[in-house]
Amino acid sequence: MTARTSRRPAVGRSRSAVAAATAVAASLLLLSGCGDQTDAAIAKREAQKNRNTGAPLFKMLPKDIQEKGLIQVGSDITYKPVEFRTNGAVEGIDPDLAAALGKELGVKLNFNNATFDTLMGGLKSKRYDLAMSAMTDTKERQQGIDGSTGKKIGEGVDFIDYLNVGVSLYTQKGKTQGIDGWEAMCGKKIAVQRGTVSHDLAKDKSKACKSGGEAAISIEAFDNDSEAQTRLRTGGVDAVSSDYPVAAYAVKISGKGNDFQMVGGAPLKAAPYGIAVPKDKPQLRDALKAALENAIKNGSYADALKKWDVKDAAVKDVQINGGS
């Protein structure tokens, strides 16, 4: 804070000047007592307050995380019901599972919002300790390769696989236009979230359409799934593809169940979601794996899945890099 000064010669301090200076000093003292009020600073203070050095797996964590009491998580918090905000609070499948892991580890897993296609870069730049964002475990991501371009974009990550899901299609309710699966998408328009398995699958299916002598699929990629849903709701595209839990939630909730309907039968390309950890953090990876195993044993994992109606996606054995 900068105090305003008088342009008169500084012959001596008047009573009013002294009073003003005293008030400014008191204000500064009060502000310093309140401390930094940014979200990051608040998260750090909460982490220290809730740090539990007696938690079952606290000593498995790297020393720097033990000291901070905080694991920074990169996530696209716009992907209902996996992660989203309600009145500012982060909730969903991933945050609930992260809370269960945090109890085993004795530290807080703090979610930081970012677009999905920037999460790998955030890990590389050490902005986050891990990414937990409905991210499918693939060999390309393990090796740090962009699945769309085939280009090397980093050192890659290790995944702790925690859910098994597939990709689904949905349309406007009562307006399927004959879409009963991917084979019927040739010549149609689809919305997807950029950089996801649905995006890659749509590209592959479009190539198959052209190879078979049919029109390509027109693909519109958005930063988040909510934008893709809005595009479908307004009739701008014929269908949306997203992970099954997200598609099922959208069909159930949007317009109180009157906006969308699922098409195409069983989800395709069933694959695991994984918690992505940089390859140079094996100690953190192993601690997270042990925490997930504990959560499965003590029932907190099953409780979280039951809450969000995704029990069928449960894993029985925790694998590292089980995706293909």
Secondary structure topology:
Layout: H1 15-34, H2 39-50, H3 63-68, E1 70-75, E2 84-86, E3 89-91, H4 93-105, E4 108-113, H5 119-124, E5 130-131, H6 139-142, E6 157-172, E7 189-193, H7 197-211, E8 218-222, H8 225-233, E9 239-243, H9 244-253, E10 260-278, H10 282-298, H11 300-307
Parallel strand pairs: 1-4, 1-5, 7-8, 7-9
Antiparallel strand pairs: 2-3, 6-9, 6-10
Walk me through the structure.
The strands form 3 sheets. The protein has a 5-stranded mixed sheet with strand order 8-7-9-6-10, sandwiched between helices. The protein starts with 14 loop residues before the first helix and ends in a 17-residue tail after the last helix. Residues 1-15 and 28-33 have low confidence and may be disordered. It has 11 helices and 10 strands. Helix 4 packs across helix 10 and helix 4 (93-105) packs antiparallel against helix 11 (300-307). Strand 2 and strand 3 (89-91) form a beta hairpin. It is globular, with a radius of gyration of 25 Å. Helices cover 37% and strands 22% of the residues. By secondary structure, it is α/β, with parallel strands linked by helices. The chain folds into 2 domains: 39-165 and 272-313, D-Maltodextrin-Binding Protein, domain 2, CATH 3.40.190.10; 166-270, 3-Layer(aba) Sandwich (D-Maltodextrin-Binding Protein, domain 2). The longest helix is centred in the N-terminal third of the chain and has 20 residues, at 15-34.
